[in-house]
Prior knowledge:
By secondary structure, the protein is an alpha+beta fold. The chain has nine helices and 13 strands. The chain has a single domain (2-321), classed as Oxidoreductase, molybdopterin-binding domain (Sulfite Oxidase, Chain A, domain 2). Strands 1, 4, 5, 8, 9, 10, 12 and 13 form an eight-stranded mixed β-sheet that branches. Strands 3-2-11-6-7 form a five-stranded mixed β-sheet. A hairpin with a 5-residue loop joins strand 2 (118-123) and strand 3. The longest helix has 12 residues, at 19-30. Residues 3-53 have low confidence and may be disordered. Ligand MTE is lined by residues 93-97, 149, 151, 186, 207, 236, 249-250, 252-255.
Amino acid sequence: MLIRIPPASAASESEVTPEAVYLSRRRFMGGGLGLASLAALPALSFADDGRYAEVESVDEPAWFKAKLASVRWQAVTVGDEAITPYKDASRYNNFYEFGPNKGDPVRHAAQFKVEPWTVLIDGEVGRPGRYDMAALAEPQQLEERIYRLRCVEAWSMVIPWLGFSLADLLRQAEPTSQARYVRFETLVDAERMVGQRSGFSLIDWPYVEGLRLDEAMHPLAFMAVGMYGRTLPAQNGAPLRLVVPWKYGFKSIKSIVRISLVRDEPVNTWQALAPNEYGFYANVNPQVDHPRWSQAQERRLPSSLFSPNVMKTRLFNGYDEVASLYSGLDLRKHY
Length: 335
Ligand code: MTE
């Protein structure tokens, strides 16, 4: 991965936006409002009292608004670890389709419209199909899951995602006995994604990711359609992204248009670019360093020169319940 160490000036990105801003909205939505009153609400926003950045309001599609009424809030949490301010999670991004720098996605994705959007589910499945987002989400129970996100570049965040279980989605497609892996693909549209027009990009589009089928069926594997109580901002992978909290962030592929059940292990984008640095598994592991830097620690954002907020990295990013997926596998070899 092309690593860019943020300059000291990145400290400006670290002024704290309290979780209270986000949590107050969550409580507001969960506070006994019925479907009818929710549907009548305009996109919510919070007053900026001068110290805090507001959580931006966005146009939410009808299917998403309807689903908000039955969200299971805080279905998974991270104990007392603070939620990363929305401002950091939505402005410090990796999304090479919109450029290689952390600030590029929020700038270049602003005009990126994700309606209409379809997702093709194909390959080794009994029920292949192409779904628009309303149809894809319709049978799913939306949950809020607060997960750690650990980037291979050694920074991390805690993000409250909204979405549904990947296993539920895959089961509905009825994988055949031949299906051993799941392959995900991001949209290719050079007109709308400026990074795909760049002659400097080394990536062979589309961005591709993959999971072993048993990893994909693990209850923690998640398809996000929102975060911080609203739809995903474009820079975070709208309208649909994968979230695999025990793996490095590059596995969490954004703006997915195709999910294929396949027989052979897919080659993912970063693995294709630098196979000695990025593997298929990409499990968070403090004992297996990247060839160019240590993975023993991470900077939890917001982080600044004077308050670096460095902490120890945990095996599987602290999600010990996935360990049995890898029993007998040499994690040094299968990085
Ligand atoms: N998905 C696509 N399509 N393109 C990308 O460049 N970057 C990955 C991942 N998903 C990427 C992507 C990387 S390297 C990380 S760390 C996470 O998205 C970052 O997610 P975030 O910007 O929401 O924090």
